[in-house]
Amino acid sequence: MATVTIRNVWKYYNQTPAVKDLNLTCPDGSFVSILGPSGCGKSSTMRMLAGLEHISAGDILFDDVRINDLAPKDRDVAMVFENYALYPHKTVFENIANPLRLRKASEATIKDRVNGAAKLLEISHLLDRRPSELSGGQKQRVAIGRAIVREPKLFLFDEPIAHLDAKLRAHMRGEIKHLQKTLGTTMIYVTHDQLEALSMADYIAVMHDGELQQWGTPSEIFNHPVNAWVAGFVGEPAMNFVTAEIRGGGDGVTLKHANFEIPLLASQVGKLNGAAQAGTARMGVRPDALTISMTRPDGPAITGVIFVNELLGGDMLVEVQLQDVRMRVKTSTDFAGKPGETCWLTVNREKWHVFDAGDGHAYF
Ligand SMILES: Nc1ncnc2c1ncn2[C@@H]1O[C@H](COP(=O)(O)OP(=O)(O)OP(=O)(O)O)[C@@H](O)[C@H]1O
Ligand SMILES: [Mg+2]
Questions:
Q1: Residues 96, 176: one domain?
Q2: If DSSP codes are grouped into helix, strand and coil, which group holds residue 50?
Q3: What is the pLDDT of residues 155-199, one digit of tens each?
Q4: Hey, what's the torsion of the CAs at 191, 193, 195, 200, to 10 degrees?
């Protein structure tokens, strides 16, 4: 187990930065997810941690030891990639045993650890098979087994379940999380899937364009995004954004738009600075922080016209057309409104957000 500290780390390929001044501290025994879209620098970060890529600037420490110049084999980390690279001609047992054989472990240790890992991963009955006789999910477990038997200080998992079907992915999310908690080994887990990060991690590092956007628990990232980019990336269906004008001052501040005028709560007024109060801002509301009704409700509401209704299993998603944008609202499947009809949306103002119209940082 180890605390991993990434300090002012940069990665350049030729002259182009892929990771920009990254700072992270992953506590000992924690499950940390690096989350971001394709090309944001996730794998580059992992490869620097594993020693497969030179660190252009900055330091990486495992506990208090700087590991920049350690060879991969001396770092005591185990990686699992999306492409699990099993040896096709070896049995499952021998695939899992491979790192121990390379280390010249005793036959008794090998048997013990391989059987232990297989039991944990529920693949004991597959030990005599070859990879071609396994499903994708089973192959992935073998790759994870091969990482476990090394009993490393740190697990680095890079999109290990991205190619599995949705149902198996949901299953493996639980399995991997349970495994990490059972073993207690620090885990850094890369994904572009916000649901994976939210459901598995103790802490999430959200990256965009090589830069860390936010570090926090899943609930902090989801409920208190620091900027509009994080707010829009995390959550499905995605947050609604509407550009509106900030009106008034003192206690009477409202957000004004052609389709609504909604006052800020008293506790929120102070969070806007003077600059924001002069002009426009972006309102952010998640689909489940809106309530739709077909009659005008009491209190401030957004008027619009129903564009389309989509059934999402246990919920209904309704798209509502305003003058310049569409908003999505989550409601129940017995919702009776039809496309073309006028409706009203009430905002749960305990859960809405206002972002700066320029750089997108969150006022609240
Ligand atoms: N060996 C390389 N040489 C040059 N550029 C590279 C190299 N590896 C990665 N890059 C570039 O660095 C940036 C970050 O790549 P990286 O692989 O870290 O992204 P990622 O977040 O893992 O993306 P994905 O989700 O697609 O795997 C990209 O713009 C990529 O094109
Ligand atoms: Mg990658």
A1: yes
A2: helix
A3: 999 999 888 888 888 888 998 999 999 999 999 999 999 999 999
A4: -10
pLDDT digits (tens, 9 = 90+) for 293-318: 999 999 999 999 999 999 998 999 99
Tell me the C-alpha distance between 234 and 221, whole Å. 8
| Same domain assignment for residues 111 and 198 | yes
* Probe target for ligand 1 pocket from 19, 38, 44, 53, with the most ligand atoms within 8 Å of CB: 44
Residue 335 lies in a domain: yes
Which residue is it, tokens 């305003």?
322
Q: What is the pTM of this model?
A: 0.94
Nearest atom, ligand 1, residue 14 CA: 4
What is the residue range of 336's domain? Answer: 240-356
Atom from ligand 1 closest to the CA of residue 43: 22
Q: What's 90's domain CATH number? A: 3.40.50.300
- Given a contact cutoff of 8 angstroms between Cβ atoms, the answer to whether 197 and 33 are in contact is yes
